[in-house]
Amino acid sequence: MPERRLVYLMAPMLGYLAYAMYRVSFGVILPGVEEAYQISDVEAGLAVSLGSLTITVFILYGGHLADRLGVSTSLLLGVSILSGSLLGFGFAGGFPLFLLLLSTAGVGGGIVVPAVYTWIGEASPGRRGLGLGVTNAFFGFGGFLGSWLAGFLLKEGYPWFLPLQIFGLTGFLSLGIVFKKLGKPSLARKYREKPDSTLGYLKMLKRRPLLILFFSMLLSNLAYFSFITWIPSFLLRVQGFSLAESGLALAFFSAVGSLGAIFFGWVHDKSRSRLMPAMLGLTSTMVLTLIVWCRYSPLAGFLLFPAFGFLLFPYWNLQITLAQEAVDKYSRGKATGLVQSSGLLASILAPTITAALIEQTTMPLALTASSLIPLLAYSLLIATWKAEKPAVKM
Question: What is the pLDDT of residue 215?
Answer without folding.
Answer: 97
